[in-house]
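Changelog-linked ticket: magnesium ion example.
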Amino acid sequence: MQRITILGATGSIGVSTLDVLARHPDKYRVYALSAHERVDALAAQCRVFRPQRAVVGTEQAAARLRELLAGLPIDVAHGEAALCEIASSPDTDTVMAAIVGAAGLAPALAAARAGKKILLANKEALVMSGQLFMDAVKEHKATLLPIDSEHNAIFQSLPGTYGRSPDAAGVAKILLTASGGPFLQRAVETLEAVTPEEACKHPNWSMGRKISVDSATMMNKGLEVIEAHWLFGAPADRIEVVIHPQSVIHSMVSYVDGSVLAQLGNPDMRTPIAHALAYPERIASGVEQLDLTQWAALAFHKPDFDRFPCLALAFDALRAGGTAPALLNAANEVAVQAFLERRIGFRDIDRVVRRVMDENPHGAATSIAAVMAQDARARAAAERIVHAS
Ligand code: NAD
Ligand code: MG
């Protein structure tokens, strides 16, 4: 029996994870679940999956959850320290890190330091503190498996070479596919007027609101470039973004001998989740088998960096190194939240991020404290720009 902690159980990835787990009660048991604010949804999950522990964001949320779960033997706690506890407890084997944004860093890192098997959906954690995170994984012999569909595809296309340098593995390039999001074809001059509803309507994937907006600006792909750099040890110029609107190929690896390996499937996160849960075995995920005869054509083309300036900003941050990606990530989180709250327009997202990057020096990412200090400075700077606009 694998004992599982799900950080961010009420989110899109959390719900898909529970869906896969429910299909295999003989293999997996839920040890702990967490949610931030959606206490009713978490209570419903607790009644079905009967974890030993549940963690929420605030004391009030915890009190409400205790009421809802009265009579059940479930320990309820709140706050970051409790998240770190359920991520590192000796009573859990595997941690699904599916909190959105920088809030997920501390518990994901706690899981790494406790040597857990980490299923990483929370790409922002790796973007912020890539070197420190990968060092912790190595030092504490944790196992890191990517859930992001592209990185899971790359992992599957690197048979037996995970953790080796790209050169040693004969890798020429990592080809990171991108759907291009909802605005791939929309006239550029109309992007100013995009609403949160339009930005959250992804053509191929159903996801949380923050990652949906990131997909619309293609900041998501930018964060994924940085994520791929840390997971697979590839420098920026060996990671190429390829627009592939159908999202059938989830990414590819191009080798020095001319071979290209790809992973294909229907766009459903239960596939990478099931892959990582069962790795190196395979289990059913509930996803329908891909029927390639249904596809008249699969298209591929180069990304337009003028239409999607966030993609260029992310490459810049990766090349700058140090705490620059943490700066980028924090500014983006603030800008996306402000856009969702209709405080700024869609195109202001890249403007806010660029200004924060231009106006704030980055430093060396020598410690988590240094990364978190950079994160805080970037958030304050981004808030000031949002406020003034
Ligand atoms: P979501 O918004 O649907 O869910 C986020 C979860 O995190 C919720 O359970 C919420 O309660 C919790 N949460 C939010 N803020 C929190 C905080 N401050 N402290 C503690 N918990 C908090 O998001 P999602 O779409 O499930 O994405 C989760 C992560 O997975 C993100 O990092 C995203 O980039 C990544 N990811 C998602 C998908 C997808 O298809 N949804 C695909 C690839 C990667
Ligand atoms: Mg992805």
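Closing comment: Example verified and attached. Residues 368-388 form the longest helix (21 residues). Residues 148-267+275-309 form one domain.
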